[in-house]
Write a structure and sequence with these properties.
DNA Primase, Chain A, 576 residues, alpha+beta, 25 helices, DNA primase DNAg catalytic core, N-terminal domain, binds zinc ion, five-stranded antiparallel β-sheet, DNAb Helicase, Chain A
């Protein structure tokens, strides 16, 4: 979003509001050398690895690798879009946002369209909510009463009823001044052979609202015999099922204390019921299995995720699938184990909140081992063998030695196999190929490929800190294209905070790590000496790789080529 505004304007904005002031409003910063340090507000830690650099205009955390400029900080911390963060900063800086006409027409249209869709959705939510108290909402109201909700719950969660027939909502929206384009793009009505109809008919309506109070879309549960049982807003310019989560507004709204864990349930009704029972931080996916996009979103808000799916076979299967998606995402995941096929709502109604708190919350491996029993007859030798093999396969994926030891002891006691036999089995079983994770861990992205990459990274750090200048290092000195680009920007006198957003998004983590690298030499003299050593490393590595290419060629070269190659090799070796 920032890229769509004039770069010079953004630069001006960032330079008028020092980053240490912006971050300092949320986090207590302590100066240590050139940088200001704090415990990271984005992950739990006891020793500070989060720093703010007034020089570069950037913040960066060495623990969780979050970083960026003031705009990034505000949008991440406040969970707002970048354009909203820009507006906040502009207010502080007493700067006016550039005229909309100054932006490309397309994006102005998109922003207007999004705003209009939010408005249409808000209107629709009110429309549905009003209907639930009228005669046409009687069956929806009865359904909610039967589930145990009262009038104030229905108001609190903004639930509604979609009329059974026709295009009432559409007509009301048109009367209110919304265009057909907006109504259609909001997925509120459709058209078939010239006849307009509302998308949601005869359904209990659950508005999906983001933490900032925007109505993104709806989920509707059918009242009559219609299909499908659950219908959700399809993808629109403001909503995507893969990304969306129901219930975030109840847990992360403006005046709600932020929970440190979120609870993932199967649907709208479960969300509402758990919240009603006073349990906070409850969210649901929108008619889909948990996606990687949603896991990323969850991670933005909490460190811990409790999966609270139904205790029946379908729920257990879904929980296992969810575990596969959350593996390696850096979340502390637990699965709540409901007894004898109960669902969360049933359990709470039957036994109450206190008992709910006492339910076992299993770690992923433990839960998988429990499920490994499913479909097996453990009283038979065959069943016990298969169970043991399955468990060993699960344990093989553990990288925590203490945890592994605990499970081994348990498994040994359970199966009668000695620890030794189990260990050998773990060594032998082949791990089933895991689906490839697309959640790239910043650590992996930022990992330097080799010594030369590392040297280039440090050179960038020295340059960004102003310890060396463009007289010492030039963009040609970098093999890494990203570093070369950063070098060009820095040499042109640009601040990292200003150009970081213009780098390709998948590379910002790597750029931030390089720019924020610490510790650095204190004096320019020491920095210059280090830079020279680093440049030598980069050059040596370049020579080495050319030498190895030539050596390779030499082994397959024709006789008449050999002499020339040998000569060039000797020249290169001399330079080493
Ligand atoms: Zn952090």
């Amino acid at each position: 979003m920032a890229g769509r505004l004039d770069n010079a304007w953004i630069d001006e904005l960032l330079s008028r509001v020092p980053i240490e002031e912006v971050v300092g409003e949320y986090v207590t910063l302590n100066r240590k050398g050139r940088k200001l340090w704090a415990c990271c507000p984005f992950h739990n830690e006891k020793t500070p690895s989060f720093n703010v650099d007034p020089e570069t205009g950037l913040f960066y955390c060495f623990g969780c690798h979050k970083g960026g400029n003031s705009i990034t900080f505000l949008s991440e911390y406040e969970h707002i879009e970048k354009i909203e963060a820009i507006k906040l900063l502009a207010e502080r800086a007493h700067m006016e946002l550039p005229e909309r006409s100054a932006r490309p027409a397309q994006s102005a249209y998109e922003n207007d369209l999004k705003d209009r869709i939010y408005e249409a959705n808000r209107f629709a939510a009110r429309f549905y909510h009003a209907r639930i108290w009228q005669s046409e909402g009687a069956s929806a109201l009865k359904y909610l009463y039967e589930r145990g909700l009262n009038d104030s719950d229905i108001k609190r969660f903004g639930l509604g009823a979609a009329p059974a027939h026709g295009s009432e909502l559409h007509d009301a929206l048109v009367k209110e001044g919304f265009s057909e384009d907006v109504i259609r793009k909001a997925w509120l009505s459709g058209e078939n052979e010239g006849r307009v109809y509302d998308m949601f008919r005869e359904r209990v309506m659950f508005p999906i609202i983001n933490p900032r109070g925007h109505v993104l879309g709806f989920g509707g549960r059918v009242m009559g015999k219609g299909e499908p049982k659950y219908l959700n807003t399809s993808d629109t310019p403001v909503f995507s099922k893969r990304n969306g989560l129901y219930g975030l507004n109840f847990s992360l709204g403006k005046d709600v204390p932020r929970p440190n864990r979120l609870i993932l349930v199967e649907g709208y009704m479960d969300t509402v019921m758990l919240l009603k029972h006073g349990i906070s931080g409850v969210i649901a996916t929108l008619g889909t299995a948990l996606t990687e996009e949603q896991v990323r979103l969850i991670k933005r808000y909490a460190r811990e995720l409790w999966i609270s799916y139904d205790g029946d076979a379908a729920g257990q299967k879904a929980a296992l699938r969810a575990l596969d998606i959350t593996d390696g995402a850096g979340l502390d995941v637990r699965v709540i184990d409901y007894p004898s096929g109960m669902d969360p709502d049933e359990f709470l109604k039957a036994r109450g909140r206190e008992e709910w708190e006492k339910l076992p919350r299993h770690k992923p491996a433990k839960y998988r081992m429990l499920r490994a029993e499913d479909g097996l007859e453990l009283s038979t030798q065959e069943g016990m063998t298969e169970y043991t093999v399955r468990c060993c396969r699960i344990l093989k994926t553990l990288d925590n030695a203490v945890e592994l030891e605990n499970y081994l002891r348990e498994l040994s006691a359970r199966t009668g196999y000695t620890r030794d036999v189990l260990m050998r089995q773990i060594g032998q079983v082949s791990v089933q190929p895991q689906p490839e994770r697309r959640i790239a861990r910043p650590r992996d992205i930022a990992k330097p490929a080799n010594e030369s990459e590392n040297a280039q990274k440090l050179l960038i750090a020295l340059l960004a800190a102003g310890l060396i200048g463009p007289d010492i290092v030039k963009s040609e000195d970098f093999d890494n294209e990203l570093y070369a680009e950063i070098c060009t920007n820095l040499s042109a006198g640009e601040k990292p905070g200003a150009f970081i957003d213009s780098l390709p998004e998948e590379q910002t983590a790597q750029a931030l790590e390089a720019i924020s690298y610490t510790p650095l030499p204190e004096t320019p003299d020491a920095a210059r000496k280090l830079a020279e050593e680093l440049l030598a490393t980069v050059r040596r590595q370049r020579l080495n790789s050319r030498i190895s290419i030539l050596t390779e060629r030499l082994s397959t070269a024709r006789e008449d080529e050999k002499e020339e190659i040998t000569q060039r090799l000797n020249e290169l070796l001399m330079k080493l």
